[in-house]
């Protein structure tokens, strides 16, 4: 495994992800931002943040698997959420937990969640991109 996840002393421990990742692989994998589309390009969970978060992470997992990687190889995640407010965190975490259970991943790599005004398709509420390292 090319990634080691760490929670340094002096930083808060977050249940769903770690604060730092150490990458030792030799190939970088950049997964484009994944939205809540199914394989046919139909939006999954329109208006449902938890369902869209879940689908985005599952789509990242599909992209990683295509190149022989998994979430165990992810060094960094970036998440964009439309009209983000802290009261949306329970729905976000619900979707993340459902995806993590299906993917068999816990904890997730370090990530950044950014609130944005809009995404490229109006019904999309969230987009997730990943950077992975593989040997």
Tally of individual helices: 2
Helical fraction equals 10-25%
Mean pLDDT: 94
What is the total tally of β strands?
6
Question: Layout of helices and strands, plus pairs?
Answer:
Blueprint: E1 3-6, E2 20-23, E3 27-34, H1 49-66, E4 74-82, H2 89-103, E5 111-116, E6 126-134
Parallel strand pairs: 4-5
Antiparallel strand pairs: 1-2, 3-6, 4-6
Helix pairs in contact: 1-2
Short description:
The chain is an alpha+beta fold and 135 residues long.
Search tags:
135 residues, alpha+beta, two-stranded antiparallel ribbon, 2 helices
Structural notes for this entry:
- With 135 residues, the protein is α+β, with helices and mostly antiparallel strands.
- The protein has two helices and six strands, in the order βββαβαββ.
- The strands form two sheets. It has a four-stranded mixed β-sheet. A two-stranded antiparallel sheet has the order 1-2.
- α1 (49-66) packs parallel to α2 (89-103).
- The model has no long low-confidence stretch (mean pLDDT 94).
């Amino acid at each position: 495994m090319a990634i080691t996840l760490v929670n340094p002393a002096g930083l808060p421990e977050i249940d769903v992800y770690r604060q730092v990742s150490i990458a030792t692989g030799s190939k970088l994998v950049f997964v484009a931002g994944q939205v809540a589309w199914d394989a046919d390009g139909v939006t999954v969970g329109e208006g449902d943040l938890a369902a869209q978060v879940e689908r985005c992470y599952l789509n990242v997992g599909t992209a990683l698997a295509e190149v022989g990687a998994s979430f165990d190889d992810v060094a960094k995640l970036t998440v964009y959420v439309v009209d983000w407010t802290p009261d949306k965190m329970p729905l976000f975490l619900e979707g993340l937990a459902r995806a993590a259970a299906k993917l068999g991943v816990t904890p997730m790599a370090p990530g950044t969640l950014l609130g944005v005004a809009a995404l490229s398709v109006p019904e999309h509420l969230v987009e997730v991109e990943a950077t992975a390292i593989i040997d």
